[in-house]
């Protein structure tokens, strides 16, 4: 029994010690005391290791920890006892401070964590002590992390530093182990705590393996600070609270309580960098602080290592040797012959060219090192190579400073040593690959280009800088896109069209980034002569046609990948698709010219939207890139209205234009909004069917037909209005008559979001189709010009005579005749009143009741049938009548208003619309007068359980 009890005691003590040590190694609230306590504990354990106690029988039984009982725990405790002098640490912590050199060379005082100090330095100190406690004894002398003094070993006897009067070690602290350390066992930082260190192996002593790489060794820190006064911009982002603090009240001492100061901090991690940026606003002053932690020069992290792999030492060579190892010996030889060896002694970024590509380029140089291309090619490309020497070529590949490719942003310009020449860096995604392919290809997540030349090898660190390998010689980009167009003799038409539209000014901007897919003269000659005429006129058609060929970014040919489609949007926000396609054998013999003027054999070329082929790619400019194409890219937004109608199968409206002789007139219109009925819409209305019959039976009568002209022009509104700009209003048409625009929502929750539009109650079904300087909205009904107001429309229909009699007996005739009114009239036909004739005759005698009933059939706004959607509890939609009654709106088999179904929709009048209904609107029980909770199955919910009102505009 005694032995079993001691075994249980042994297990309990071991668990307590395990929790104690785990909590101790991660708790640094009192650094000196904890180290001394831990060291003292280890020494006591060393004595306890051999401790024996008598059992029940009087025999001595060993209950201390043995080396083979828990090797892992004992090794860590024994290491701490051997290599930490508790008396020295205890004395120093009591004395107040010890100084150690910081990474930047300054001395930072640490006094028991009592002083205000740099948090980053404190973390470094804590991690160093923890690492020393967890290392093996043999490693401590060799491994030391910056931030603390060298690892302390007790001096040998006779050493000058040996202590002669060592105070007696404090006794073992037998207070409950969990009293101070239980919380730290679970509340340690994620990266060093129990749960952050990997539960499967319970390796919570290995703190170094779980700390972020940017807190490890061989990491250099750069700090940038910027202060600026932001009071000029409003209040600098500060928000006053409690009505205080304008900054001038001296009686208000606690300024921090008068304003809300916004602090923002964000961090991002790259392969070899960890960057944190914080922005603090305080009383009109803004401080921006950027801290960059990166592997020091000569160190780097393995690209395909673990996510937390630390910085490792790299095997670096000179820039010359590195470039030669990368296969650029001829490039380096030219650099030496040009007397530029001294540039390699500085921190530079060198874009070197492999020997094969450089030899091909050098073959065209004269003996005096002048670049000599074919004169015809030079005139065609408008690049003066004859003024460049071999020295200039090398300088155009040299950039001062070290630029890691992953630290360069897209469209960034790197200034070279050649005056006036920059290198533009572009970043493109890789084509989709399978997981198996990614595992067997050592590649960056993106593709990089320098002046549209692919980078084949990147980020080779040298002793003095960085080397990148490019696919071919970089052409210096010193001319703008417009300069290149003006210098080519095969782009005279393009130059004229750009100047007529004013787009030439944009292509001359030096700080821009554009891509111009430039049709040559042969491409423009393929166009219809009418379109060429519009281009020369420089109107909206010309502007849209040219913008269809321009991107506001740099799109190099390498952005397109073979075997997949690549897409982007042009300046019209229209989509362009790029795809490599095979070319004919005759074309292959010529090859595709490259940016350096050479012509290499290619069996594929890039097709744009399946219509135009890039004949000459990557002509680099200072503000982007130019590609020569063989066909003008068509776009509806650059086509006249007649072409747009044909492309969208709006054949009836187009044929009416042709037969009326108005096609050219409509094609010349600009800044217009066209509401065009579909062919099906013509067949669904009386007015539409009338014009269909005229087309079939009497087309000769349509020429210069005044009624047809008015009908067609009634579908044209000025100015150009897209759906995002539509408002509920009356719009003037070219015919001189107005059309009414209404907006509705179909969402029961977001009742203020208008997602359905009508014009004279004809619904817009397709919209925002751009045409030559205008826009086309397709509608589901023809627009027939209303000739009468509501009162006249009632009088013109004999089926409405009984309702008209009720209106005439009241004082509402003026309301229904008003030109400014926009009303909805709910009209029961005569047969409805005949079914309740007795009630009808009685009501005619009661003037008050009669007016109340008529007002219940008049809505003060226009609600077309398309605006009435299904409406169920709890999202019940209602609208108010001119009499103040609430009518429920719903749609099941047909649109419904309260108790009546709408049998005929949207009879358009000049001042509103008429709906025929199959019942008299019953307004005896007005919803607006019902008390809260009356008839409510959930009275405790109050108004939330009642139907929610919806108000139409």
Automatic annotation (TrEMBL):
Signal peptide annotation: 1-27
GO terms for MF: cell adhesion molecule binding
Region (Disordered): 147-170, 225-247
Compositionally biased spans, kind Gly residues: 234-245
Domain FAS1: 315-474, 478-633, 637-783, 787-921
GO BP: cell adhesion; extracellular matrix organization
SMART domains for this protein: FAS1
Keywords tagged on the record: Disulfide bond, Signal
GO CC term, one of those recorded: extracellular space
A Pfam family annotated for this UniProt entry: Fasciclin
Domain spans labelled EMI: 216-313
Protein name: Fasciclin
Organism lineage: Eukaryota, Metazoa, Ecdysozoa, Arthropoda, Hexapoda
